[in-house]
Amino acid sequence: MAIKEYTVLTMIPQANGQTRALLRCPFCQNETWAYHWSLAGSGKKCQCGAKFNPSGTATKEQ
Ligand SMILES: [Zn+2]
Predict the structure, then answer these.
(1) Which of 1, 3, 21, 42 is 20 to 30 A off residue 15, Cα-Cα?
(2) Using an 8 Å Cβ cutoff, are 60 and 5 in contact?
(3) How far is the CA of 52 from the centre of ligand 1 (A)?
(4) Can you tell me the distance from the alpha carbon of 60 to that of 37, in angstroms, rounded to the nearest whole number?
């Protein structure tokens, strides 16, 4: 299990009260949009298999 901090490039509040965040994966550098609440729930996965956690880190099975 590898752990790296991911980068939040921007956060945009939505009209429905949710917040969308643009995240950069620290493993593959891919940029992914995620709803902030989804990070605290089931989490958001990158195309490379890394998982974004609400604490600001991403984890990936090696
Ligand atoms: Zn990735």
Answers:
(1) 42
(2) no
(3) 9
(4) 20
